[in-house]
Amino acid sequence: DSGMYLVQPDSFYQPYKVYCDQTTQNGGWTIIQNRKDGSVDFGRRWDNYRSGFGNIAFDVGKGHWEYWLGNERISQLTKQGPTEVLMEMEDWSGNKVYAQYKQFTIQVTQPRPVQTVYHTGNTATPSTNSLPYRTPGDPSKQCSRDDGGGWWYNRCHSANPNGRYYWGGAYTRYMAKHGTDDGMVWMNWKGSWYSLKAICMKIRPYFASR
Q1: Which pTM does this prediction carry?
Q2: Mean per-residue pLDDT, 148-152
Q3: In this structure, which CATH number among 3.40.50.1820, 3.90.215.10, 3.30.1540.20, 3.40.50.10170 belongs to the domain 3-138+196-209?
């Protein structure tokens, strides 16, 4: 059944709790990120993204809270074998789309983890293959400073799931901290100046989908 589970994918690390979705596409998903109301600030430094932040708990009445599971833990999960990722997105009119990728991995290195991802679903975004993870605390990288959250930025982004949360969808450069499109953006769906209402990222072993 769907719910909270205690997992220990790597015996060198302590076990931790995750939420498992056993319903979507026959189940087997672990939720690694959730955005829905702006209650958690995602404009954090590298060490926060490495360890994770927010509230992973699931409330029967309110659903999932906002959180990032943590690059260390996500890396432990993806090292178990071939992994796919599902991005579920919702706009402010209640429309929903998804993007699904296979061969998703995170290699936690110093100073930044590297992500590999290959697209297989719809609402495709340009490749983020083998890009370093950047956060607003990295003074040498303008993209991570301007875009409001940690991500694998590529000139600077075509997708920004961890960007700033703007209520209502449309926003302008005058509302943005640095005058840039720093919202929860998925350009191929809504463009640069529309911040999504909700995004949820899930991963599972690739063989589970077959």
Answers
A1: 0.80
A2: 51
A3: 3.90.215.10
